[in-house]
Every structure is written in structure tokens, then in C-alpha cells.
Design a protein that fits this description.
Distance between the termini: 34 Å
Structural class: mainly alpha
Largest sheet: 2 strands, antiparallel
Strand content: under 5%
Strand order of the largest sheet: 1-2
Length: 642
């Protein structure tokens, strides 16, 4: 998964024109607003925990304020990302086309996103009017006032796409006639769809073949827009809207679209996502990578290829703190790579080891991917159970990398460090790493022991990481502002994907699509392990082309009802899904972690693929082991009674 690369907004923001300066100021101001909102939320969640456990006076007012602040963070954060042209998409077709054709396709996507922004603003306006007299229970603020964020975000999205179109025209990637033709084509499609709704053929398909017709519309629209490079969030929204239009009046649907997006984020549990991301980003800023590498080197120095073992272990430790494969590959790889080059290690293998071990943190808690899965399933798989279930599979994924690295090192006769362990060295190295590692002990231990909830635990993680960063003197007001803005942007993308996927999930439920797909799968076999194998294959293929979050949001609502109906534990399936998709972030053409690892080491992807394949083979063996032995995932949750 990559972010849209054309047109370049940096050029716009550097220009001296009045409009460019105004757009630059508005974008920066919005970033600061989001940073302040996230900072306020961090203070509120810390207050929530303190008031509950120290004063035995939990605040319902704080909880309500946090819920609505999260919605504003997600929706405004998405508008901010559109203004920076940083929403996730699949640019495979755009990258394959020549400049002229790619410009036209970018113009089409901008026009379609502009239409989405206009619909969002329209829906937001109707929500404001319709809920102007309805007050929230604790804040006593009109719901309509809170839903004004939909109107604001919609207008900002329209503005951002107007800028994209202007950029395309100015750089001659598209011409005015191209934009006119695109608008005419979109208008013609809308008119044709309206006329087709009145035909006997349409009525027959809706009355007699609704499930099949809905599947064709939903997935046909979604995958067509994904192939064309449209923002994934917009693709999810439009596929859901068009599918719902088969049974719901279009005028009513558009007017309620905004309210559905707003309500899709109205959950206290969603707060765990931005806070764990923020805690990880603060820990990254605190410079914990060097401390963790020293600790990992102490553990793995007696094993052949000790630097590779250190890389894998450090990625597992760092990933469990940051929850990000990209962050782990960058921070750990950036330190290991120069050492590996100096000690004459094979650099393609070094890059492969770094890339393949970096995603382990997506399984080892606290994991954002497991949080997203829990939220998609409506809490059927609790965050606590998923966190505990992720440990063994995460270790298996990392151990697979270490096993292959061991074989590589033995074949190349790499020497091992046989120097004795000195107690002073062990103590010093452990004490340097201990404060960082204690984050996992405090947060996960507190959640498992019932001291606080997963959401409150995420707030504790932010507070702990902030204090640690201050102790290490690595956090200045400027860097803190940068961390807050980056976190708001990253979580804005994911939260808006969740909100848009809510439209898709609503349409799927409305048309009984999961039941239809379940019948299709069970017609192939009624053995749950056969179905899990088929789903594993499907997810491995999906992971090649799609990043973790959008893949979860699209395919969890499809597969989850099928496997749970066959008796598969929701926690077990969540771990399988994240394991599958974690491998996907290392596979081209959309392997973001692989690209980052190669950029860190300077190696070509073509040279790294060879050493990666044996690692993938062993990791797939680990996947099969986890699939057929559910106890590997479920023993810890059951042991702790969650």
C-alpha cells in the first residue's frame, strides 16, 4: 500500500501565491488543531484512570467528551490527510501508465473524491438540521452541532481535490478537456443509473436475485475503484452507498450517509487505537532502539550470525512497543545495517531478516492490528484476549526468521562471539533496556489483571512513554508537536477507513451478503480447517496488494461470520488474519516494510527477494501450525480467564 505520489503538494505549499499561502496556512493550522485535540484527549484519558482508581469517582462527562473528540479527530484527521494528499490507495495502474494517462486517471479520482466530499458536506448539513434539538446526555450539546464536523470535513475534502485538479492542469498532466470529459462521464453514469432503476430488468434483479446483485455491485464497485487508484476510504464508501441504493431511497441515503459515518466512530473502545499509536511514536522519539539492540545483542551473541539474531530479536521487542512494522524496520534497521556492512555480513540477507522480522510487532501486544480486528467484530473478540493470544504466534513468526538466519550463517561459516558474560555488562545492559520494556509489563499486566481496561491502558501507555521521554531528555515542545500531528494524521486515515467501512458493512448486512458468501464457501467443504486453509490462501494473496488496515476492514466482515458459524474461535481467527496480513506488508508490489528496509540498507528489492523466500516458507509453516493447533493462540487467554 502506498500513498498517492502525484500530484506533488510540496510544490504547491512552497509557492508564494496568495492562494498557496492561504492553503498552506489552513493545512498547518488544521494540523495544530488536531495535535491540540489529541493532547487534550491524552490528558482526559489519564484523568479518567486517576479519578476512577484513586478517587473512586469515574467521570461520565469525561467519557462522553472523549468519544466525541475521537470522532472529530478521525473525521477532521481524514480531511487533513486529503489536504496533504496522503490517503491510502493502490496506485498499481497509475504507476504502470504513462504520464498523460496517469494524469487523466488522477483527475478522475480527484473528481470522484470531490463528489464524495460534496455528499459528505450535504449529509453533514442534513444531520446538523435534523439533530439540532437533540442534546447529549452529559455535555448537553446539540448532536447537530457535533455533527458539523461532517460539513467542515466535506468542504475541506472538496477544497483539497480542487487543488489537485488545479495542480494537474498547471503541470499539464491533464488538460481542461480531460476534466470536462471526466465530469461528463460521471454525470452520464449517474443519469444512466437513475434511468436503469426504473426498468423491469432492474426490478426483477432486485426482487428475485437481490443477494447476487448486491454482491456484484458491492465488490464490482470496490475492486474497480481500487484498481483505478481511488482512495480506499472513498472506494469503501461508494461501494456501500451503491449497494444500499438497491433497497433504500437515494435521497434518504445521501442525507443519512454522514450520520452513518459519524456514528461509525462513536465507541469508547476506538480510543485505544490513537493512544497506543501515540505511545509508540513517543517511545520512538525517546531513542529506545539503541537500548533494545544492545539488550538483544546480549541475548543472541552466542548464536551464529549473531547480528541477524539481534536484528530479529530487537524488531520483536521494538515492534511490541511501537506496534509498527515500518517503525521497527526503520529504527532497528538503521542501526544494524552500518554494523552489518562493517562486519562484512551479506547485505541482501541482512535486509531480508530486517524486513521479515519487523512485522512481528503487529502480533505481539500492544498491537494496533488486533485492536482494529476487535473493534470490527464489535468486541466479540476482546482486546485483552487478542493481546494474550498474539504472543505465541508473534514469537513463532520471529523464530522462523531466526531459524533461517541461523542456517544462512552456518552455511557462510560466520563466527560466533564466545566471550564470557560479565555480570556488570549484563546488569548494565538490562537496566538500560528495562524502563522501555516495563511499558509492556505495566500496560499489558494491568489490562490482564483487570486493573484497567484496554482503552484506559492505552492512556497509561501514553503517560508512561511521555514521562520516559522526558527522563531521557529526548522530547522538546517542537518534537512533541510533530509527534502529535503525525499520530493524528496516521490515526485519522485508519479511523476514517473504519467509518467508511461501516457503510460497506451496513450494506452487506442489509443484503445478507455474509450469509450468501458463507453458503458458497460451505458448499466447497463443511470442514472448518479446509475453509480456514482457503481463507489463509485468500488473505496471503490479498496481503500482496493491500495494506493491513484496509484489508482487515474489507475482509473481516466477510469471513468472520462464516468461520464463527463453523465453530472457529473469534480470537483464533483474529490472530490468523493478522498473521496472514503481516506477511503481506513484506511482499511486493505493495510491501511497505520491504521497501523501507531496502531504502535503509540501499539494497535492490530484486536481490532481497531470494533470501526472503526461505523465510516466507518457514513462516507459512508457522501459519499452518497456528491454524491447526488453536491452543497455540488460545492457551494464554484461557489461562487468564479472558
Amino acid at each position: 500500500m502506498t500513498k498517492q505520489s502525484e500530484p506533488s503538494f510540496d510544490e504547491i505549499l512552497r509557492e508564494e501565491g496568495l492562494f498557496s499561502r492561504a492553503y498552506n496556512w489552513l493545512t498547518q493550522a488544521l494540523g495544530v488543531v488536531l495535535a491540540l485535540l489529541l493532547a487534550m484527549m491524552s490528558v482526559l484519558i489519564s484523568y479518567q484512570v486517576i479519578s476512577r482508581y484513586f478517587f473512586n469517582a469515574p467521570s461520565s462527562l469525561t467519557e462522553e467528551l472523549l468519544r466525541y473528540s475521537l470522532i472529530w479527530l478521525g473525521i477532521l484527521g481524514s480531511a487533513y490527510c486529503f489536504m496533504l494528499n496522503k490517503h491510502l490507495n493502490l496506485p498499481l495502474l497509475i504507476d504502470a501508465l504513462g504520464p498523460r494517462s496517469a494524469g487523466r486517471l488522477n483527475a478522475f479520482n480527484a473528481a470522484l473524491t470531490f463528489l464524495f466530499g460534496a455528499l459528505l458536506a450535504w449529509g453533514g448539513y442534513h444531520s446538523m438540521i435534523g439533530n439540532a434539538l437533540t442534546l447529549t446526555p452529559m455535555l448537553h450539546v446539540a448532536i447537530g452541532t457535533l455533527q458539523s464536523v461532517l460539513l467542515i470535513a466535506g468542504l475541506l475534502i472538496c477544497l483539497s481535490q480542487f487543488v489537485v485538479l488545479a495542480m494537474l492542469l498547471r503541470t499539464r498532466q491533464a488538460h481542461l478537456i480531460d476534466i470536462v470529459v471526466i465530469i461528463a462521464l460521471i454525470t452520464a453514469f449517474i443519469v444512466f443509473a437513475g434511468l436503469f432503476r426504473g426498468t423491469e430488468t432492474y426490478m426483477d434483479w432486485v426482487d428475485n436475485h437481490l443477494e447476487l446483485f448486491s454482491i456484484l455491485i458491492l465488490f464490482g464497485t470496490l475492486f474497480a475503484l481500487l484498481v483505478l487508484g481511488t482512495s480506499i476510504a472513498v472506494g469503501l464508501a461508494f461501494s456501500g452507498i451503491l449497494t444500499l441504493s438497491l433497497q433504500v431511497d437515494i435521497a434518504q441515503l445521501f442525507s443519512t450517509m454522514g450520520e452513518k459515518l459519524f456514528n461509525g466512530l462513536d465507541s469508547f473502545g476506538f480510543l485505544a487505537l490513537p493512544f497506543f499509536v501515540l505511545a509508540g511514536n513517543i517511545m520512538n522519539q525517546a531513542g529506545i532502539a539503541r537500548r533494545l539492540i544492545d539488550f538483544a545483542m546480549l541475548l543472541g551473541r552466542r548464536i551464529p550470525g549473531s547480528l541477524w539474531q539481534t536484528n530479529a530479536l530487537a524488531n520483536m521487542l521494538f515492534g511490541s512497543l511501537s506496534g509498527s512494522g515500518i517503525a521497527a524496520a526503520t529504527a532497528i534497521g538503521g542501526i544494524v545495517t552500518p554494523i552489518a556492512r562493517e562486519e562484512k555480513y551479506d547485505m541482501p540477507i541482512t535486509t531480508a531478516v530486517n524486513a521479515a522480522s519487523a512485522p512481528c510487532g503487529m502480533l505481539i501486544p500492544p498491537s494496533g492490528a488486533l485492536i482494529v480486528y476487535s473493534l470490527i467484530t464489535g468486541g466479540s473478540a476482546s482486546i485483552v484476549a487478542l493481546f494474550l493470544a498474539g504472543y505465541v504466534p508473534g514469537i513463532i513468526m520471529g523464530a522462523a526468521v531466526m531459524a533461517v538466519a541461523y542456517v544462512y550463517a552456518r552455511k557462510r561459516k560466520y563466527a560466533t562471539d564466545k566471550s564470557p558474560y560479565l555480570m556488570s555488562e549484563v546488569t548494565r545492559t538490562f537496566l538500560r533496556a528495562a524502563p522501555s520494556l516495563m511499558l509492556v509489563v505495566v500496560v499489558i499486566g494491568g489490562i490482564v489483571m483487570g486493573v484497567f481496561t484496554a482503552t484506559e491502558g492505552s492512556g497509561i501507555a501514553v503517560l508512561y512513554s511521555f514521562i520516559l521521554a522526558l527522563f531521557y531528555r529526548s522530547l522538546t515542545p517542537k518534537t512533541l508537536l510533530k509527534v502529535l500531528i503525525e499520530t493524528a494524521a496516521a490515526t485519522g486515515i485508519i479511523l476514517f477507513l473504519i467509518a467508511c467501512s461501516n457503510l460497506m458493512s451496513w450494506s452487506m448486512t442489509f443484503a445478507s451478503i455474509p450469509d450468501t458468501i458463507g453458503e458458497m464457501l460451505t458448499s466447497l467443504s463443511d470442514n472448518k480447517y479446509v475453509i480456514l486453509l482457503l481463507i489463509n490462501v485468500a488473505l496471503l494473496v490479498v496481503g500482496v496488494f493491500m495494506d493491513m488496515a484496509p484489508a482487515q476492514l474489507i475482509f473481516t466482515p466477510i469471513f468472520y461470520p462464516v468461520v464463527t458459524a463453523m465453530g472457529v474461535d473469534p480470537v483464533h481467527f483474529g490472530v490468523l488474519m493478522v498473521y496472514n496480513l503481516s506477511m503481506g506488508v513484506v511482499t511486493p508490489p505493495v510491501g511497505t516494510v520491504l521497501f523501507v528496509s531496502c531504502s535503509v540498507s540501499g539494497e535492490k528489492i530484486t536481490k532481497v527477494i531470494g533470501p526472503l523466500l526461505p523465510i516466507f516458507a518457514v513462516q507459512i509453516l508457522g501459519l499452518l501450525l497456528i491454524t491447526f493447533v488453536p491452543a497455540l493462540s488460545l492457551t494464554l487467554p484461557r489461562l487468564f480467564g479472558v
